[in-house]
């Protein structure tokens, strides 16, 4: 018989855990081990609250798992799972994790037993081609992870999950986001990176508690103006979108003309120019110089300007255009100390066109 826990400690917390991690058990062997424990006089199945079955060889879940009626956490990741029974029917599960298995939409029962106790479901790294709508019947679900599947759409009925704090759907095949996402009023993190999304709905602005919005590696060319209303947003990842790539490229590869450079030199160094020295058209040109808004810079610009904003994401700092015009890309670095203390102000200044 295999060891039930990672330690022989008699502590109360360990007595509530069965850990079969990395034991490479086949279904029959696992069932035998569970059955022996169920009949154990020293420890009862009712005591167990956590079972970990990571890295075994299971096509489905053992039937006698349902004898652990007080089970709260079940982790069966990396175990080759291809069929998932209604695990929520005879247990008290609040957290179910089945990452990196072979689950698809055909793997699930038509419906799960409605269970108000379920708080977290993680089905990342499987083979779902459609959003598993059976999960929409868990009214108190707070954390839903469906990343790294092949899901093509978020259903409009997602609005049923009013308690969601985290919705993670990065690494799928999403092309858009339904307006009803805006009804997930308790959402704090929305992860939609590495998809094919080209637009966001204005309803995103209703997510007043949203702190993290990860959109990198999509096809976004613009953001909805309403996004400036997200006052609690402190993490916005936009890299590898046309919105960012295009403007950064323009900034780096569009140097000023000789006319612009000459005009800047004249204005910066206060070189006196009298009528008759140069054509009147050039005098008019010099009169239309714009001061750089960086308070640490005394430079000017005419037509060639740098549009700047900075967001912070989990991989670092990235430049995308702002309604703040600078005379040179070096002013971005020079002005960082000025704008950094008020990063929310920078978010509100994003150019959305």
Key features of this structure:
disordered N terminus, two-stranded antiparallel ribbon, disordered C terminus, 353 residues, 7 helices, Leucine-rich repeat, LRR (right-handed beta-alpha superhelix), 10-stranded parallel beta sheet, alpha/beta, single chain, Leu-rich_rpt
Q: Could you walk me through the main structural features you see in this protein, from its secondary elements to its overall organization?
A:
- One of its GO terms (cellular component) is cytoplasm.
- By secondary structure, this protein is of the alpha/beta class.
- It has two domains: 12-248, Ribonuclease Inhibitor (Leucine-rich repeat, LRR (right-handed beta-alpha superhelix), Alpha-Beta Horseshoe); 251-289.
- The chain is built from seven helices and 14 strands.
- It has a ten-stranded parallel beta sheet, with no helix packed on it. It has a two-stranded antiparallel ribbon with strand order 11-12. A two-stranded antiparallel sheet has the order 13-14.
- It is elongated and about 105 Å long.
- The termini are far apart.
- Residues 1-10, 309-323 and 334-353 have low confidence and may be disordered.
Please give a quick description of this structure.
This protein has helices at residues 27-38, 242-253, 258-268, 280-286, 330-334, 336-339, 343-348, and strands at residues 17-19, 50-52, 73-75, 95-97, 120-122, 143-145, 166-168, 189-191, 212-214, 235-237, 290-291, 300-301, 306-313, 316-326. It is of the alpha/beta class and 353 residues long.
């Amino acid at each position: 018989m295999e060891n039930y826990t990672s330690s022989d400690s008699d502590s109360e917390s360990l007595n509530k855990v069965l850990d079969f991690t990395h034991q490479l058990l086949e279904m029959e062997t696992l069932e035998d081990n569970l059955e022996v424990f169920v009949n154990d006089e020293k420890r009862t199945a009712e005591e167990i609250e956590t079972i970990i079955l990571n890295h075994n060889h299971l096509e489905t879940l053992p039937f006698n798992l349902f004898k652990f009626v007080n089970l709260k956490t079940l982790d069966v990741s990396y175990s080759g799972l291809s069929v998932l029974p209604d695990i929520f029917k005879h247990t008290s599960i609040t957290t179910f994790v089945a990452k990196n298995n072979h689950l698809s939409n055909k793997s699930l029962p038509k419906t799960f037993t409605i269970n108000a106790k379920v708080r977290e479901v993680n089905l990342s790294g499987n083979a779902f081609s459609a959003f598993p709508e059976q999960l929409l019947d868990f009214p108190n679900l707070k954390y839903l992870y469906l990343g790294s599947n092949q899901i093509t759409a978020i259903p409009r009925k997602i609005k049923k999950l009013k308690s969601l704090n985290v919705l993670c759907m990065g690494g799928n095949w999403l092309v858009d986001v339904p307006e009803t996402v805006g009804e997930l009023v308790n959402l704090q993190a929305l992860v939609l990176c590495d998809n094919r999304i080209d637009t966001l709905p204005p309803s995103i602005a209703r997510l007043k508690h949203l702190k993290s919005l990860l959109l990198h590696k999509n096809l976004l060319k613009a953001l909805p103006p309403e996004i400036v209303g997200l006052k609690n947003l402190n993490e916005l990842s936009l890299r590898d979108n046309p919105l960012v790539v295009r403007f950064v490229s323009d900034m780096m590869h569009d140097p000023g003309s000789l006319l612009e450079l000459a005009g800047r030199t004249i204005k910066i160094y206060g070189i006196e120019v009298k009528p008759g020295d140069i054509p009147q058209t050039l005098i008019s040109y010099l009169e239309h110089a714009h001061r750089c808004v960086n308070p640490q810079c005394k430079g000017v610009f005419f037509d060639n300007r740098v549009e700047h904003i900075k967001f912070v994401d989990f991989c670092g700092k990235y430049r995308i255009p702002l309604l703040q015009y600078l005379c040179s890309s070096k002013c971005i670095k020079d002005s960082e100390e000025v704008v950094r203390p008020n990063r929310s102000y920078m978010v509100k200044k994003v150019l959305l066109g």
